[in-house]
Specification:
The structure holds 2 protein chains of 2 kinds. Chain A is α+β, with helices and mostly antiparallel strands. In chain A, 17% of the residues lie in helices and 32% in strands. Chain A contains 1 helix and 5 strands; from the N terminus they run αβββββ. Chain A has a 4-stranded mixed β-sheet with strand order 1-2-4-3. The longest helix of chain A has 14 residues. The radius of gyration of chain A is 13 Å and the shape is globular. The N and C termini of chain A lie far apart (35 Å). The mean pLDDT of chain A is 89. Chain B is built from 4 helices and 23 strands. Helix content of chain B is 12%, strand content 39%. Classes of the chains: A alpha+beta, B mainly beta. At the A-B interface, helix 1, strand 1 and strand 5 of A face strand 18, strand 19, strand 21 and strand 22 of B.
Chain lengths: 82, 324
């Protein structure tokens, strides 16, 4: 059974938000599940940073993990009100 | 410094050559003649052939993409002109101009509906686009019915005050002053939620169903992996899968950047091409297996195709209303 998304994960998301959300190339942050094919921990809780395509990811200083939760980078869309 | 006519004519010839060779590259979104960008500033003393690309690629990433056929290396020079590479993805701004994407004229979603239900066109007075009526809701304080949608559908003006007229169908879908069905009452933007409710005028009947989906059966918290479905003004009934929860997203509203909280991220399932588009804002995302409402749609992107909704429990609490 998949790990629950509990207060620890939400707290870690808040910490990550404080670290990277202000960067202009970061469009969103959320909590998701590990979905990498073949990953041993598939389905476990991860933090996700939505980054604008083409951004220099090395300049973003995105941590590899926060409070034990792995951080994954996903391609952001040009999010806009619809 | 001005560019003389002969130089511009030569540039156009080089542009033609560049377009013939590179415009159909999947990563190239546009090619033009313009001032090259040098160290974050346009050099207005010369012209360059400028390649606009979806993503700038370098080194190994470029080699891999080229091997996969996803792009090709761009030249440093075309004819006598240096080249420049800019990042740009372009699409029509449907949601800001008349004539934006609309369902078929015969669609019930953009026509006058009595009773009103979730999934149909609404807009505020003075709107340049229409959104979606999410649902009829009940004011927790008075027990009176209200209409739920997004702040940017019912208000979209930082100086607006309660009383702004709401129309069904929306003004860009043929609504007129005779179709005023409510007045904006309050919103949740102060707590970083793009949501608002309107008092009903009592001129139409009200149904708590979603057009094409039936009744909503309570609310639930969004969870990654949950299959969801919505009924929206523009794309109708679409399905998706929640891939992220408890998110924060940055968007621009009426000229100001805002952070929206309690965001659920929804991606297409099974290669579906569309989950949402401009005009679907205000739709309710329902758990496809239980019909419980999990999120209020408010934003999305086309590249990649993705929808964003706000956790419905937070929205209802912030507005002081209930779905049933």
């Amino acid at each position: 059974m998949a790990d629950p998304i509990d207060a620890r994960a939400r707290q870690a998301r808040a910490v990550l938000e404080g670290q990277v959300l202000a960067h202009p190339d970061v469009r969103a942050i959320d909590i998701g599940r590990e979905d990498a094919a073949g990953a041993a921990d598939r389905g476990s809780v991860v933090l996700r940073v939505h980054v604008r395509p083409g951004a220099d990811r090395s300049a973003l200083r995105i941590p590899a993990e926060v409070d034990g939760f792995p951080v994954r980078v996903v391609a952001a869309g040009d999010y806009r009100p619809e | 410094m001005t560019i003389d006519r002969i130089a511009r004519a030569r540039a156009r010839r080089a542009l033609h050559d560049a377009c013939r060779r590179y415009l159909y590259d999947p990563n190239v979104t546009s090619i033009d003649v313009g001032f090259p960008n040098r160290e974050e500033r346009f050099d207005r003393s010369s012209l360059a052939i400028r390649f606009h690309v979806a993503e700038k690629l370098y080194g190994v990433a470029l080699e891999n993409a080229a091997l996969a056929g996803a792009t090709q290396p761009l030249p440093a020079q075309v004819g006598e002109f240096e080249t420049d590479v800019l990042v740009g993805r372009y699409r029509p701004r449907w949601w800001t101009v008349p004539g934006w994407r609309s369902p078929a004229a015969t669609s019930p979603r953009t026509r006058r509906q009595d009773p009103m239900r979730g999934g149909i066109s609404v807009s505020r007075q003075g709107a340049y686009g229409s959104g979606t009526l999410g649902s009829v809701v009940t004011d927790r304080a008075t027990g009176r019915p209200m209409l739920l949608s997004n702040w940017h559908v019912f208000v979209a003006d930082w100086a607006a005050r309660p009383g702004v007229a709401v129309y069904q169908p929306g003004l860009t879908d043929g609504g007129t002053f005779q179709d005023m069905v409510g007045r904006y009452a309050r919103d949740a933007m102060p707590v970083n939620l793009d949501a608002a409710v309107a008092m009903v005028t009592g001129t139409r009947g009200l149904s708590r169903e979603q057009l094409g989906l039936g009744p909503v059966r309570g609310i639930a918290a969004p969870e990654p992996g949950m299959q969801v479905v919505k009924s929206g003004r523009t794309t109708g009934i679409t399905q998706g899968e929640i891939t992220g929860v408890d998110g924060v997203a940055k968007l621009r509203y009426a000229g100001l950047d805002r952070v929206i909280r309690n965001v659920a991220t929804i991606d297409p399932v099974d290669g579906a091409s569309v989950v949402s588009d401009a005009g679907d804002s205000g739709s309710l995302w329902l758990d496809a297996s239980t019909d419980a409402c999990v999120a209020l749609h408010f934003a999305g992107s086309n590249i990649p195709e993705r929808a964003l909704g706000m956790e419905i429990g937070r929205v209802l609490d912030a507005l002081g209303v209930d779905l049933a």
